[in-house]
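Subject: 8468_t:CDS:1 structure
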Amino acid sequence: VITNDTWPDVAGALKTNTVLKYDQNLRNVEATSKPVELFKLHLGNMPDKEKPVLPKGLDYKKAITDYLTEMGLISTQYSEKLQLSTERELYTLYPMLKESEAAAIYCMRTLKEHMITEVGSSFMIVDCGGGTVDLTTRELLENSRLGEITERSGDFCGGTYVDKEFIKFLKRRVGDSAISLLHENHYGQLQYMVQEFCRRVKLPFTGNKKDFKTFELDIEEVCPVLKQYVSETTKIKLDKDDWIIDLEFENVKEMFDPVVGKIIRLISNQLNAGAGSGTCAAMFLVVLKWTYGIELSPQWKKGDPPERKISHGRINVFSKLVSRGTIVDVDEEFGKELFPSIEDQSAASMKIYKTPAYDGKYPDEPGMEKLGELILDFPDSHLGFNRKLEFTLTFGQMEIRAYCKNQNGKSVDAIFNLEF
């Protein structure tokens, strides 16, 4: 049994991989030879075609039995019996702590950090594992106890499904048959390539484009044996690219999107299931990572930088709506009334900015980042300055909505990602 305690940028997090290595006859677990992984997914209620392929002649029950035996949880003498046991019999013979219960125990120690201290408060646990994502909603009871207020739910959308999307990406670049032959004949090199992807791309990926750097996958360095399985047509193209495949931001985002989308739907369903049981405390608070505001153009006045004076005696400034570190309720609004810069103004442009600073003066100063822009008619110019627009930023669970309405009821809006 190999337990890893060193990970990229992390140390001390103990984790035993769910991987076995068998002898050539698939009978005995050995330190070398054929690796078998993801076999736990065969316990799930999923179509057979979506279950991981196991070596011919190896039953998933044997793999699970062997894994538990190697972990020391089950004596070898019970291995045969385990294959015939029902889940109830197994639990009776070998009491185990379920992952959801272990997660709940961990959360008991950290509730104060998340401002969940009142009896009756509820919170959701989303356990994103390698193969599955499991959700449960708990309620804080008296005497530091937890209750379960919704039925547990989950699905097959863990981290390994991002790996599968990466392999699909490789198939599009080098060909289906090339990857299939690599899997069949050099499984170790394929897994090394996947692990390099995980270490260099998947784990550091934040979903924020400005944090991303194009990753160059050098086939000759990472998986040179793959070259012999590539078709001549593909080989010519890859030769021109020096056998380097670029992973751009959009490529990686497309690998995450189906998995993240599924997790978000699971969370939404879990929230709806618990709608009658009170508010799920942790899910409905957002701590802002950025300061948000808009560009305004007030009158330039004495003391303002002369070089910043623009037409009509105005100056462009950053007007803060909400500061970083603010704890906001989901769907909480922050707004401002806007007035014309010139009397006969017929349209208005609302430029939205964010900054990591707690405040800002000008929209072009270091750290400022433009989120987007709304443009809306400013009607009734005959009223001069006696007109206004209503502008709001609304913070959702995963997004920000910018909205503006003029006095005639016409409106415009836009949605931006909310970064945590």
